Amino acid sequence: MTTTARHSGSRPATRVLVPALALLLALWAAVPLLWMLITAFKPGTAIRTSDVTLSFAPTLDNFRNLFLGGNRAGTFLLNSLLVTGVSTVIAVTLGCMAGYGLAHWVSRYRTDVAFWVLSTRMAPIAAVIVPLFVMFRSAGLVDTIPGLVLAHLSFNLPFAVWLMSAFFGRVPASVEEAALLDGCTKWRRFLTVSLPMARPGVVTTAVLCMVFSWNDYAFSSALSGPDTATLPQAAGALVTQSGIDWGLLCALGVVVAVPMLVAGLAVRRHLVTGLSLGAVTGE
Amino acid sequence: MSVGISKAPPATAVAPSPADRRPRRTRRRRPPRGLKTFEFAMMAPALTLLSVLSWIPFVILVAMSFAKVRTLGGVSLTFTGLDNWTAVLGDPAVWASWWRSLIYFVSIVALEMLLGLGAALVLHRLLRGRSLVLSIVLLPMFLAPVMVGLLGRFMLDSTIGLYAQLLQAAGLDADLLASPATALPVVASIDVWQWTPLVALILLAGLSSVPPSTLEAATVDGAGYFRTLVSITLPQMRPIILVALLVRSMDAIRYFDIVTATTNGGPADATKIIPLKLYEYAFRFNNQLGKAAVLGLTMLAFSIVLARLFLRFFGERTAGPTQGGDA
């Protein structure tokens, strides 16, 4: 980025102002997260005081209460892992196949199918939950893991299809043609040529599906019960009439956040493509 | 730098373009079209599942909107004609909620676009540590929205909240989430905290795609920073700004976890946006699922318009010249 170098170097004021603003930006984003992290290790007495303090004896009590106390976070964690894992694997597998198909399909209905897929993904959650609730109620799927997996697929499958079709659309045509001339069947070409070339796309899609599923609160809270509650629901459940145990909540927040922050940053290079639904690429 | 999925398939193996113009004998067989193709077979499993998960709920939603729904002891629908529609459309509380939602959506999206642009401009000009700062700035996006809402409550808790105490030190001594006048702006700012990074990320990619040569020309012509920004950079970035705007708008309408976790519509309905009104109909009080369905359909119509815009825009983009090279 040589142009940037030339631009910022131009005036002394900019040389100070830009880093200062960047620091402000970083603080703005990070302070609540850091505060959550710190609070998670604070003993209750240090949390409930109105004096902001950073001197306290770090403790694992909050985490211990979360998992070993009556809070059953272990069960929630297992449910979360199960639902996120299964729905992500299904969404990415079917999404890769369908995305590839959509990227190469020659048909006048292609736009219509693409639009349908996109609008399924974009449907307001509240509008989807109500009929799903009724549907699951009559099919006996409320408060079951398969039901929750299906519910998460309702937003992750169209997302995976759409995004993978964008990623497969970028695999150079020459590579695809060469493979076919070599006598590959189309299926083999998909598996051995296109899929490996779109690997960053597959990983990005998988990570984003995982994040959406892991972080979902609306679907889980409407469609699951005591046996299938997930971690975000546990967060909701910590809010009671008698107040909130902030230490517990922050500990839970750390458990919910850390895996996603790590996974998200791991695919940062392709994040912009994933989150703009394939409309924008680049670093 | 920026590519779109188009209405026309990308020029890949199946593209019939150059071959079509050659004499009949020498060219390859016409590529198969439609339903009996490998491509369609690849889509079939996902599309089947997606049909079950979208068309059946849609039909149910439409049916529910014309019926009284009972869920106790098996689901049953009793047809009631337009009762739900007239009830919902005649309810001033619903209109108030739409109005509130509109204010909420417009203000969060506008704020996120402005702040996101500012952040992108700063990050673009940051020479050292850009990658690190960007990584930090992106973090809020990955936190579960319900946790973001609860974290916001924690930061703003009037007795122990870190931000509440800073505000109190600055003379703002009130429970911001508990007061009807401030609740909506505060909830909005929590959403802005979480989603501005997304806009910044997209716009940063857009900034990097503006060809350096045009900027150099402007500098040579003696244009200042803001002049260049307004008359060259921003117009060049128009397509990407639009992408950010549409993506953010569609998501802003989708999600409501932050509002649920912070105020759940209160105090005194000050933050009761449409999805929460829908929830109130559906799951609270006396299960008026039919009315909830009416609201659901109106929301759906809204988001379909946005998705249409997004897709049309995608098509136009690829038809036009692609911009810039890759980084």
Structural class of chain A: mainly alpha
Radius of gyration of chain B, in angstroms, nearest whole number: 25 Å
User: Cα distance, first to last residue of chain A?
Assistant: 11 Å
CATH evolutionary superfamily of the largest domain in chain B: MetI-like
User: Which spans of chain A have pLDDT < 50 for at least 5 consecutive residues?
Assistant: 1-9
Q: What CATH architecture of the largest domain in chain B do you see? A: Orthogonal Bundle
> Which percent range describes the beta-strand content of chain A?
under 5%
The CATH architecture category of chain A equals Orthogonal Bundle
Mean pLDDT figure of chain B: 82
Describe the protein.
The complex is a heterodimer of chains A (283) and B (327). With 283 residues, chain A is mainly alpha-helical. Chain A has one domain: MetI-like fold (Orthogonal Bundle), CATH 1.10.3720.10. Chain A is 75% helix and 1% strand. Chain A has 15 helices and 2 strands. Chain A has helices at 2-8, 12-40, 44-47, 61-68, 73-104, 110-122, 125-139, 145-169, 173-181, 186-197, 199-215, 218-223, 231-237, 246-266, 268-275; strands at 239-240, 243-244. A two-stranded antiparallel ribbon of chain A has the order 1-2. The longest helix of chain A has 32 residues, at 73-104. Chain A is globular and about 70 Å long. The termini of chain A are close together. By secondary structure, chain B is mainly α. Chain B contains 13 helices and 2 strands. Chain B has helices spanning 17-21, 38-65, 83-89, 92-125, 130-138, 145-156, 162-169, 180-209, 212-220, 225-254, 257-262, 274-283, 289-319; strands at residues 67-70, 76-79. In chain B, helix 9 (212-220) runs antiparallel to helix 10 (225-254). At the A-B interface, helix 1, helix 2, helix 5, helix 6 and helix 7 of A face helix 2, helix 4, helix 5, helix 6 and helix 7 of B.
